[in-house]
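call fold(seq) -> tokens
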Amino acid sequence: MSFTILTDTSANLPSALLKERDIYVIPYHYSIGEKQYSCLDTEGFDGKKFYKAMRLGADIKTSAINFQNYIDFFSQFLEKGEDILFISMSSGISSSFNCSEIATGELSAKYPDRKIYTIDTLGASLGEGIFALRAADYRDNGCDIDEVYKRIEEEKKSMYQVFTVDDLMYLRRTGRLTGSAAVIGNMLQIKPILKGNENGEIVNFTKVIGRRRAVEALAQRYNMLVKDNENQIVGIAHADCAKDAEYLAELISKKKPPKEILTVMYEPVTGSHVGPGTLALFFMGDDKVRFR
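ret:
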């Protein structure tokens, strides 16, 4: 029996690609001042305008996806007799996954003949989205929902997520940064290098001087830790720094070129937490890579 793959807008996948791969998304919401928004259409998202507003001090707030949102979203597929595999943003940076688990418990009792699997990817942006694409590959190649769930649960240990930001203020302000009290000297051009750890939390693990060296540091981590590069999609996400994203793509293609590089603008909800100028790299290593 076929099944439906669901994810959320944090997965950062282009709308056309979602449609092509038959993946459905539930939106996160954000507000600028008193006005509320959602971002289901990534092609329609004006990233340059959004991140310019952030640089000018716009007051942006986000909200988790709540229990009732998941009930309503999942129910439309369950009512059609479909099993569902939901691929979620990390529980280490949002309470949304826990809400999806509570909703799943209630819906499983209401639809006992349906299978509902939820996966905490321990990631965000393309650290989540790449798993939605891998799940679609497995489904389209004939794997059933049980096998796809087991594969993604195992593979998520191997996703490395490394990034640099222009200012740690955004991560600190929203409580997304774990275990770091270091002051980053903007005047000295000291740039933090951060990663997603084994619990799906964001940690600051080193720093370099200068933006160019920060971009090169991301590529160095890739060259050191990537596995089976020629058979994987590597993700690059940026918050209005397209030239840096191009330079990073060029660097990782030199020594160990991947099968494909998927480059996206950070969608607004995750982007509002990491801030303008953020550049992130997502790739598969071994099953201990999150500890490195």
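The chain has a mean pLDDT of 93.
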